[in-house]
């Protein structure tokens, strides 16, 4: 009887600690400093009054050392990627240079993703599939450095077009069991031939 009384006291004590812990955690969560934007910055994000921890305005960490959360990343993306397009347009790099045509496609896609989803960084990240919006801003900065190097070295002049002879008679076989024809005999292995 004494042990069951002691067990029930421990259980009650544990339950009260658990309830107290929940209460403390909920109060801490309510008091937690969540970065809040004002003015135009706040208007560019959702008009909902509820901030979800870890999402949108509730995001407090990128999870990457040295890369801070930037709630203005989407407008920065648009500005920086447009600067890349402008720099290429104002350069003497030919419009048909492979680097330029490739980068213009990527850049225009990212700008469109950002413009179509100005209040949804997660959607921009999913569409671009190259990291968080903060990383996409860093990538734009890095690409500007590469572009300046490419322009200074005039690397498009060093790349020569290559004609590649494409085999047109290759056919796709959707049945991997039929890759080698009808029961072909492959002969002995080198080990068997040596005997």
Concise summary:
With 195 residues, the protein is mainly alpha-helical. The protein has helices spanning 2-31, 39-44, 73-89, 98-116, 121-128, 133-153, 190-194.
How would the global form be characterised?
extended
Residues in helix, %: 40-55%
Helix-strand category:
mainly alpha
For the secondary structure, the number of strands is 0
Annotation field: number of helices? 7
The overall average pLDDT, rounded, is 76
Q: What share of residues are in beta strands?
A: under 5%
Terminal residue distance:
84 Å
Order of helices and strands: HHHHHHH
Contiguous uncertain segments of 5+ residues = 12-17
Please state the CA-atom Rg, rounded to the nearest Å. 30 Å
For the sheet with most strands, the description reads:
none
Which descriptors apply to this entry?
195 residues; mainly alpha
What does this structure look like?
This protein is mainly α and 195 residues long. The chain has seven helices and no strands. It has helices at residues 2-31, 39-44, 73-89, 98-116, 121-128, 133-153, 190-194. Helix 4 (98-116) packs antiparallel against helix 5. It starts with a helix and ends with a helix. The model is unreliable at 12-17 (pLDDT under 50).
């Amino acid at each position: 009887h004494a042990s069951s009384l002691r067990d029930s006291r421990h259980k009650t004590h544990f339950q009260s600690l658990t309830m107290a812990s929940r209460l403390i955690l909920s109060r801490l969560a309510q008091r937690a400093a969540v970065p809040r934007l004002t003015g135009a910055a706040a208007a560019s994000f959702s008009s909902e009054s509820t901030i979800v921890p870890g999402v949108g305005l509730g995001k407090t960490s990128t999870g990457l050392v040295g890369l801070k959360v930037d709630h203005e990343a989407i407008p920065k993306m648009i500005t920086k990627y447009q600067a890349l397009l402008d720099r290429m347009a104002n350069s003497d790099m030919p419009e048909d240079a492979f680097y330029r045509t490739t980068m213009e496609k990527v850049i225009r896609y990212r700008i469109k993703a950002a413009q179509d989803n100005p209040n949804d960084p997660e959607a921009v990240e999913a569409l671009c599939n190259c990291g968080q919006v903060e990383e996409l801003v860093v990538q734009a900065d890095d690409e500007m450095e590469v572009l300046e190097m490419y322009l200074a070295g005039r690397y498009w002049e060093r790349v020569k077009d290559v004609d590649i002879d494409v085999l047109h008679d290759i056919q796709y076989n959707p049945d991997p069991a039929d890759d080698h024809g009808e029961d072909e005999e492959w002969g002995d292995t080198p080990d068997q031939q040596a005997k």
